[in-house]
Amino acid sequence: MRSMILFSKETMTKVQTIPKDLRPPPLERGLFSPHDGISTSPPPLIGPGDRCKIYRNKFHHNNEDFHNNAELALFGLIPSWACDARSATQNCVVHVADVVNKPAYRTALFNAQFCWISVYYFLGSVWKEGREHPVRIERADQQPLLLAGIWSEWVLNSATTLLSFCLLTRDNDSQLKAYGVRICQGKSQCFAFLSSSNLLKCLDHPYQKAIETLANTNPPDLRVTPHTSTHRPINVT
User: Where are the alpha helices (DSSP H) in the chain?
Assistant: First the structure.
């Protein structure tokens, strides 16, 4: 089973539509539901090629009320030097150990263009009885998870700049290894987690230090439960 990332319908409102010939198609399946600080229940899942709310490190100077400073961004990073947007859905997630070696992310990384998103939960899979089963991973205390990423700005035309991002992953910690959780096309990985108490301090470091911190920051206590939702990306046709 291919597990990919999805976000909520609510984050897509009041945004400029990407020209149809440049819009990357959504991928098959998603991994989490965003938390916007307002809704009391998880919104529907949506997929790569859609937009969702992100928070950029360069535009925040304290940890207070960052939900008021969210920006809508395309999920799937488009390098600033790209000729078109067709590569976006290939640039949705990247491991912290590989990001420096991949040209698509290098400019954003060297400029320390980090960001984060707030989510209720993400989806993965576990191998059981000869096949993969979808599971839901969330904090045991029901608080939102903060996941780290990298953002980029791409000039769509002379008057429009398109903000996009990808998410960073890392090797599973001991608690997720014990469950056998896999994400992103069956890889034994999890997302790079941030703590609300030090997220800006972490992401304001030079990129080398920030990547090292993200690779070694363990998640909070997590709960893994079976997931039976049949949610599909909103823009699948």
Answer: 103-110, 174-179, 199-203, 207-216
Q: Span 9-226: which CATH code? A: 3.90.1680.10
Q: List, for residues 10-46, the tens digit of each pLDDT value.
A: 333 333 334 443 333 333 345 556 766 555 555 667 5
Q: Domain locations in the chain?
A: 9-226
Calpha distance 140→124 (Å, rounded): 16
Supply the DSSP symbol for 38. Answer: S
How many beta carbons lie within 10 A of that of residue 70, not counting itself?
A: 18
Cα separation, 234 vs 237, whole angstroms: 9
DSSP letter string, 188-225: SEEE-EE-TTTHHHHHTS-HHHHHHHHHH-----EEEE
